[in-house]
Amino acid sequence: MTQHDHSLLLNYVKRDMPNDDILSELSSLFKIFGDGTRMKILFALFESELCVCAIAELLSMTQSAISHQLKILKDNKLVGSRRDGKTIYYFLLDEHVRLIIGMGYQHIMEDKNDEKDL
Known about the structure:
The protein has 118 residues and is mainly alpha-helical. It contains six helices and three strands. The protein has a three-stranded antiparallel β-sheet. β2 and β3 (87-92) form a beta hairpin.
């Protein structure tokens, strides 16, 4: 059996491959998106900044449960907050978060649209 030489391709891939620490951080980031409640919160914040009580009402959950998830999202630099008097409003922290959610949604909807065409 003849083997072919992969060395050029592998060198090219290795050159751009992030180190294990970066890949571990990336893996941890994507785990954050793996929770349905957090995804609902992120998708709601995709549309508008909201306070905890509004998110809780929207998702029919307790403020305590929402606050817990917001802390995880904030600790992972996915959402930010601002205070207005006694109310704290949450928002998507930057355009990267908006792009991740938007692209993921588009990817899922492409599959759904492809299924409709069959």
